[in-house]
Amino acid sequence: MSTATRSLPRTIGAHAILLTYTAIALFPVVIVIVNSFKSRAAIFGAPLTPPTPKTFDLIGYTTVIGQGDFIHYFQNSLVVTVASLFFVLLFGAMAAFALSEYRFRGNSLMGLYLALGIMIPIRLATVAILQLMVASGLVNTLTALILVYTAQGLPLAVFILSEFMKQVSDDLKNAGRIDGLSEYTIFFRLVLPLVRPSMATVAVFTMIPIWNDLWFPLILAPSEETKTVTLGAQLFLGQFVTNWNAILAALSLAIMPVLILYVIFSRQLIRGITSGAVK
Question: What is the pTM of this model?
Fold first, then answer.
């Protein structure tokens, strides 16, 4: 029996498991988007069926755009997410370059210290963070969210990027130094272009928790001027009456940026995840 024949059942089993996981992961997203285009009666009457000409209704989207200041919430989420991603990628890449390139006393200890940030949830320090933001006068500002999300994303960024930067050829960097390039030029012009797949991986893994977060916006920036998309969707949750059409429409609109980001960076994301698997 050939090797290909023996490996066929394993391949089929692996694909079956992956397809099952994909279906389970996408099922809630599909249900939310499908039901956002249906009337309230159809949502509760037949939640698993697609909208028909009789049940099709855009009342949720008109409510979100008209009643809730969704565009403003979307802008706040976009500003916070983009700014946080910029600082996480910039500072994370710089720290990863320093840890992977230079050998100094405490190098390994510093890497371990940063790795602890992955294992310890930042929400455990919510009270201390809130006290710090109150003392700094940053409550109800987008700056508070950007600072928290930057601190939250840095450990994972440093951990991933440092492993990739260790694989960059030393000969290439030494050749740049011989040519008179500064360390900043070597970092920005030689190293960063070679680790773009890992940067895309870090960007996706960092963006999703930031965009979907409800905890810190609710605690640090609950005012109307600083509400994010996830916090703004709570406007349609009432104690006695809940506007499910508006909630599903708001969630569907909030999902779009994540899907667009994945479509744009999917190739580099897959390269970043798999490039370290094969030597």
Answer: 0.83
